[in-house]
Amino acid sequence: MKLQFFILSLVCIWNSVFAQMDSISVEKNSVTFHNWQANSIDASIFVFDKTDRIPIHGNFYKAENDLVFIPQFPLLQTRNYVFVFEQFKKDFSLPRENSELPKVTAIFPSANKLPENLLRMYIQFSQPMKTIGNLENIKLIDENGKEVKGAIFNNVHELWDASQTQLTIIFDPARVKTGLIANETLGRALTPNKTFTLVIDNLEDIYGEKLEKPYMKAFSVFSADTIAPDTTIWKIEIPVIESMKPLKLHFFDTVDKMSLQTRIQIFNAENKLIRGKMQIENQEKTWSFIPEKTWKKGTYFITVNSRLADPSGNNLNGLFDHEIGSLKNDREGEIVRLKFLIK
What are the angstrom distances between the C-alpha of 121 and each of 66, 76, 108? Predict the structure, then answer.
């Protein structure tokens, strides 16, 4: 009898609380609980991150028949939330913005011939992806169809950009750099004059949807790249005055994509940053810059951080696989300035 009374009481509580609202509308900056019928808004109402149980700070207020929650910071599509009112809990999350399945859109370096001492590759996806448990689903396959074990360095924290659409993978540096135990015992993962395939499969986006289909990048391998980038041999294509033609830098070898995006800037003679749009072309051998405003007559400087590197990790300061004392400068990150005139 007592058990039946207890169950009946729970049912009554559930029904009375559930009746406090009809439905929930979720947006980044607000959550609306429709037809809210509780008598008051008090400290018994909460919103939590469902996974971490972290309170989501914000303000509740009544809007006609609805209860509205304004979070202190926008809600994230990557998270699930829970609304708590007394004994009642209700899960909610932002609606999915994209109904298409995720896919790989590009891999850098984009060339199909790569050096045996390749250090980094960048995989770009069509939409935000989960940021854990992906490396085990990215495999390097040799020309005999056999997986090259230990080729890709298994980071504790995967290297994703802020948008969660670009993943950096690193070929185990201990195997790339000579003189280390892993290099001497295992050798480099890539072998000259052979063909390899990078296979990407079963990765999931932030909604749990898997890749539309496996993605494969086949490439052949040539001998190690042991020539560091050198600004003195770059060709500068100078634009015409009062135009918005691009300034172009032409390299004689492929440059690391992220270096091109982050290590080069343009300044005028007054040391004012010239803003504009950057483009990467010709298998990362050409860097183009289109200014927001037309080019004016005067002196300009291309500033290049010495950490600018090629895909093998060689940078302006020296080789990745360098001997002790062979670097040009004891400090990384020095700035190189290239002068050009528009007249």
Answer: 50, 28, 5
Q: Is the separation of the CB atoms in 285 and 254 below 8 Å?
A: yes
- Helix, strand, coil % in the chain, rounded to nearest 5: 10, 35, 50
Q: Distance between CA 171 and CA 309 in Å, rounded?
A: 15
Q: Do residues 121 and 138 make contact, with C-beta atoms less than 8 angstroms apart?
A: no
Which residues, including other chains, have CB under 8 Å from residue 339's CB and lie 6 or more apart? 299, 300, 301, 302
| Per-residue pLDDT reduced to its tens digit, 55-108 | 889 888 888 888 899 998 888 776 788 888 877 788 888 887 767 899 999 999
Number of domains in the chain: 3
Closest-CA residue to 330 (of 315, 313, 319, 317) = 317
* CB-based burial label for 119 (10 Å; 0-12, 13-18, 19+): buried
| CATH number of the CATH domain containing 83 | 2.60.40.1130
pLDDT digits (tens, 9 = 90+) for 307-325: 999 999 999 999 998 877 7
Average pLDDT, the chain: 89
Mean pLDDT of 122-135: 93
Domain that holds residue 335: 231-342
CB count, 10 Å around CB of 302?
Answer: 21
The per-residue pLDDT for range 134-188, each reduced to its tens digit, is 999 999 999 999 999 999 999 889 999 999 999 999 999 999 999 899 898 989 9
Q: Tell me: pLDDT of 246 over 50.
A: yes
In this structure, the answer to whether residues 210 and 111 fall within a common structural domain is yes
Phi/psi for 155 (5° steps) reads: -65, 145
Last residue of a domain, one of 38, 60, 92: 92
Residue 275: pLDDT over 90: yes
Both 235 and 204 in one domain: the answer is no
Question: Which residues fall within 8 angstroms of residue 172, CB to CB, at 6 or more apart?
Answer: 150, 151, 152, 153, 182, 189
Same domain, 292 and 329: yes
